[in-house]
Design goal:
The chain has 120 residues and is mainly beta. It is 6% helix and 33% strand. The protein has one domain: Metal Binding Protein, Guanine Nucleotide Exchange Factor, Chain A. It has one helix at residues 8-14, and strands spanning 34-38, 44-47, 51-52, 60-61, 69-73, 80-84, 90-96, 105-109, 114-118. The strands form 2 sheets. Strands 3-4-8-7-6-5 form a 6-stranded antiparallel β-sheet, with no helix packed on it. The protein has a 3-stranded antiparallel β-sheet with strand order 2-1-9, with no helix packed on it.
Amino acid sequence: MAYNELSAQEKHVILDKGTERSFSGKYWNHSGTGTYTCRQCNADLFPSDAKFDSFTGWPSFDDTIEGAVEEITDADGSRTEIVCANCKGHLGHVFRGEGMTDTSTRHCVNSISLDFKPKD
C-alpha cells in the first residue's frame, strides 16, 4: 500500500510516536464541516461534529468513525495510545472520565497526524 510522503517532523510524531507542542498544530483551533483523516494513509478517522475544545492545545474528539482508530495500552499502563487502524500511524492518546463531554471521552490527537477533508 502506498502512503503519503511525510516530512521529518511528521515522521517523528506518526512513526516514532512523538508529540507536537500544544497550541502549535494547524487543527487545534480548526473548525469546519467534514472529516479528519490520517495524514499518512488518508483513512477517515474523526467526524468534525465529534471535535470539541478541550483547552489543551491539541485537537480533541469525543468519538471516532467506527473501526477507524485502535487503542493500545502503553507499556507502563498509565495511558492508552491511539493509532490509525489502517496504517498503525500514531495519533495521540485517549482519556476517559474527565467529564468534558457527554461521552466523557477525549481523543487527544496531534494535528500533524491529521488532514481535513471538507464536506462537499
